[in-house]
């Protein structure tokens, strides 16, 4: 039987970590773009637009991410469409991430005093101008900490993509365990790598929240 050193195990896990980081970035950036669109629909004056965004958010927040991954990967296969694991993983995570970011940002926008809307409207600004020049700059300060904090959930959410065959960190952990028969070492290292990815994000969120709250109070 081939002997695997701790370094060999760690090296293989770090190679897979690249895909975890890449999938997290794609999910967060793509989810942010879709989430921004949902935000505009959610606060639109049009009833149909608000209803669509509302039900979209409720659907993706109210169903397990695991189920969404299964549907993205196996659902289209029922119609003869061959979906690669990486595409299904990215699509499902983008749509899931968008639902949470849209709701986080909606709360931040709606926390801005109603007088800000009325004052900007009195200056003859349209809806988009109000958002761009008055509401967004204020809401952005409130939105940064929870947005950074949610990125931790996105990183951890990538672990579920192993169920459809996408080889990221947790899937690599299973493969390496099967090859080395050292589950405690392998999964101990997997846990440490996840911690190394998530802890700086979580800490950054806390620091930003404190700094922005202090700035807001001083202002």
Task: Report what the structure shows.
81% of the residues lie in helices and 0% in strands. The chain is mainly alpha-helical and 219 residues long. It has one domain (6-218): MetI-like (MetI-like fold, Orthogonal Bundle). Helix 1 packs antiparallel against helix 7 (169-180). The protein is flat, with a radius of gyration of 21 Å. The N and C termini lie far apart (67 Å). The relative contact order is 0.15.
Beta-strand portion reads: under 5%
Number of self-contained structural domains: 1
Helix content: over 70%
Rg to the nearest angstrom?
21 Å
How does CATH name the architecture?
Orthogonal Bundle
Low-confidence stretches: none
Task: Determine the mean pLDDT.
Answer: 90
- Number of helices, counting only DSSP H or I runs of 4 residues or more: 8
Task: Give me the CATH fold name.
Answer: MetI-like fold
Tell how many strands the DSSP assignment holds. 0
Give the biggest beta sheet: none
List the helices and strands and how they pair.
Blueprint (H helix, E strand, L loop, with lengths): L5 H37 L4 H16 L2 H11 L9 H26 L3 H9 L4 H31 L11 H12 L2 H36 L1
Protein traits:
single chain, 219 residues, flat, mainly alpha, MetI-like fold
Summarize the structure.
The protein has 219 residues and is mainly α.
């Amino acid at each position: 039987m081939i002997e695997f050193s701790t370094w060999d195990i760690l090296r293989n896990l770090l190679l897979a970590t690249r895909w975890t980081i890449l999938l997290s970035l794609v999910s967060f950036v793509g989810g942010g773009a879709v989430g921004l669109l949902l935000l505009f629909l959610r606060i639109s004056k049009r009833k149909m637009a608000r209803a669509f965004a509302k039900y979209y958010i409720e659907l993706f927040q109210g169903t397990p991410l695991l189920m969404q991954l299964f549907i993205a990967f196996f659902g289209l296969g029922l119609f003869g469409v061959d979906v690669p694991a990486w595409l299904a993983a990215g699509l499902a995570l983008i749509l899931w991430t968008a639902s949470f970011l849209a709701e986080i940002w909606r709360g931040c926008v709606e926390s801005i005093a109603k007088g800000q809307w009325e004052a900007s409207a009195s200056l003859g600004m349209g809806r988009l101008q109000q958002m761009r020049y008055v509401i967004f700059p204020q809401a952005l300060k409130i939105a940064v900490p929870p947005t950074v904090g949610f990125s931790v959930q996105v990183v951890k959410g990538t672990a579920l993509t192993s169920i459809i065959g996408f080889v990221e960190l947790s899937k690599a952990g299973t493969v390496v365990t099967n090859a080395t028969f050292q589950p405690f070492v392998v999964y101990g290292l997997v846990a440490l790598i996840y911690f190394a990815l998530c802890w700086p994000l979580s800490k950054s969120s806390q620091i930003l929240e404190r700094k922005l709250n202090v700035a807001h109070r001083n202002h």
